[in-house]
Amino acid sequence: MRSANPVDFWRGVALVMIFINHVPGNFFASLTLRNYAISDAAELFVFLAGWSLSYATGKPEAPDPPGRVIFRLLSRAVQIYRAQLVITMLALAMLAGAALYLNNPLFLEWLNAGLAFYDPVSGLVGLVMLTYQLGYFNILPLYVVLLLPAPLFVLLGRKSRLAALAVSLGIYGFALITGATLPSWPSAEGWYFNPLCWQLLLVLGFLSAELARSSSRFRTCVKKLVPISIVVVVIGAFVTIFRYWPDPLRVPEPKLFFLFDKTYLSPVRVVSLMAWLITFHGTYPFIEGLIGPAARWLCQLGRNSLAVFSVGSLLSLAGQMIRFLTGGNIFADIFIVFCGLGLLGFTAWFVEWRSRGSGSQPPSS
Amino acid sequence: MVRRVAQPRLWVATAFVVTAGAAVGQQSTDQATQLPAQIAALSKIPSQFSSDCRVKSPAFEGRAPLRTVRRALHRGRVLKVLAIGSSSTVGIGASSPVASYPVRLENDLEGVLQGFDVEMVSRGISGEIAEAAAERIKREVAEAKPDLVIWQVGTNDAIARVEEEDFAEVLRATLKWLAANRVDVVLIDPQYSDRVASDEHYTAIVKTITDVARGERVLVVHRFDAMADLAKQKPVKAYLASDRFHLNDLGYRCMAEYAARAIVAGILQAEAEQTPKN
Questions:
Q1: pTM recorded for the entire structure
Q2: Which of A118, A186, A255 shows the shortest C-beta gap to B142?
Q3: I need a labelling partner for A291 at 20 to 30 A (CA). Which of A21, A153, A154, B131 fits?
């Protein structure tokens, strides 16, 4: 088991925020990052996934051989794909169960699930191909699709970090200019997180970790950027709180460069995330000193991110149902969030307990 | 003719322009004389709905002229419609209610707007509440540049128990933005099921949509009330045919019919505004 560290801590923070944000309308959702920053927890989560790629593929002085990198990342993609299928099926069963038990057909169309129930022949194929995703169940499909080409970026990055960044930026720019995305089927609505754009965060996360591990100049440079990052964070908070978001009909072409679009990860969202990361990158020791056990608890969540994310997705859906049944009030919100966080903590503990019990290695994140 | 937008086929368009170039002058003269007559003919469409969809309460309301739609028709332009809020299956048979809603709307529009060229783009909102969807809708509008947006709104907010005021604020702001950019709108309020008929918050969201639509002078299709009416009228077996949720199917079919009629009413209102009064 890894000891508490900043990356697991921030991943834990992202997981908690994603869980809360996925119960729309709840009071605590007004406290999460997206209310104070142009970027939100999803960006942080994907960047940290990229950061972990560096650790999953060896040490700077002893990188894993290419074959091992490829198989390691592909096996991780399979593991995440399996998790996505399981939670999607469970979510559909929860919706169907609620529809039957409460005799209310509205549940069958909740979270964009209508196709799965009313057009199962094509809906099922779409779910398995990841070209049709339930609402709020879009992050793992993105992660699977990003991990498939990830070995290429890792191996290219070892030869030349600049080349890896250039390829990634090239794909990103192409998608922003042309609006290109991966196909979605049978519904024509497109990927909620466009992988052609979001791959940039994974690559940035990977390259940042590689540099942070091997270059003291990079670390010094990041420290020097803290003051300007604080300014960017403050401006971003101001813009977000007062909703000074650009009007899509008023910005020049190519519009996606200038909007704050989440699907296409407009550049301003990347800048915002970088500013937050640089501003807070050295604050973990201070935070741990301040909230010790809570920080270690968040590290435990982050260490077991796939299990926690999967359970969190289902708990969010349960939370939405509880809000619906109770009429949505602050007591329901407190109950949902505190029980949910308790169960997320239990999930992380259980995974580690099981790993210890079976004598196998603890799961990597 | 109604056509669904997929990818622009530039070579087809170019070939068409080249070969048809000579005929354009003649065509536009013909159109100029034909179009007003075609628009006037819309008023002759029977006001009654099909027998399955007949309801006592008004199925749509609003004194909202669809000026942009009218302008597009008068200029002989292709009428661009963006349908937002329900998943659609493109190019698949209409075997299912959800999948076929945009197809049905297309068919109904085709029925009422005979002789006009309509382009339909449909975009689902994946379980998002209006607050989250608002920005995405703006981007979709900037991309598709529609004359008309048909927006099914409120079901997700009603289920997520979003505060009525918060919901109203987002809805109002988005409608103002659409109006400022001269995009016409038809709203469609949430789905009905007998389990939510007495749910105070759910019905409050339905009412909020009507109130905001009145305030912003926007057409609104009363799907919830119409479905409630149909549920009362029809013997249980009629709508519980193949499964217990069959009412949804009828809901989508009638919703498309109501929306098509609401659009015609809006076009005629815009037309009446422009007709010189004696």
A1: 0.87
A2: A255
A3: A21
